[in-house]
Amino acid sequence: MLTTWTRALGAAGLAGSAAIHFYLYWGSGYADIPVVGPLFLVNGIAGVVIAIALLAWRHWLPAFFTLGFGGVTLLAYLLSVTVGFYGVRDQFNSQYEYWGVITEAVCVVCGLVLLVREVRGRVRTRSGALSPGE
């Protein structure tokens, strides 16, 4: 049950981050920014694809991609706030930035929880398979 809810929450985080990136790309002029603009479009598409995979495919790979998506996106944003990222310098002062950080943090947490549960499940299965007499 926890895994199902974690997958749903992770997919919501992915979809939320994708929506923010799509809006900023098409609605806020990010399409005109070299390098960062196309990365926003790729991020939006990737968020949707990973969200669908996370809901439809019960495998560790979508969880890994969810964790990676959130982590890499947060890292890029942190760089843009501190030292700049390909010429873009953000200030963490808009709703889109707040919601972006929240949705991407959700991706990191959900991806990590799902991966830990997967590893624990595999360890239990292996230990049970290795010692059937216990």
Walkthrough of the structure:
The protein is mostly helical. 79% of the residues lie in helices and 0% in strands. Helix 2 (36-56) runs antiparallel to helix 3. The radius of gyration is 17 Å and the shape is elongated.
Please render the helix and strand layout as text.
Elements: H1 2-27, H2 36-56, H3 60-82, H4 95-130
Helix pairs in contact: 1-2, 1-3, 1-4, 2-3, 3-4
Please outline what is shown here:
The chain is an all-alpha fold. It is built from four helices and no strands.
Mean pLDDT: 90
Which spans have pLDDT < 50 for at least 5 consecutive residues?
130-134
Major sheet: size, sense and barrel closure? none
Distance between the termini: 28 Å
Gyration radius, to the nearest Å? 17 Å
Overall geometry: elongated
Secondary structure class reads: mainly alpha
Q: Topology as H/E string?
A: HHHH
What proportion of the residues is helical, as a percent range? over 70%
Number of strands: 0
What fraction strand?
under 5%
Number of helices: 4
Task: Please supply descriptive tags for the structure shown above.
disordered C terminus; 134 residues; mainly alpha; 4 helices
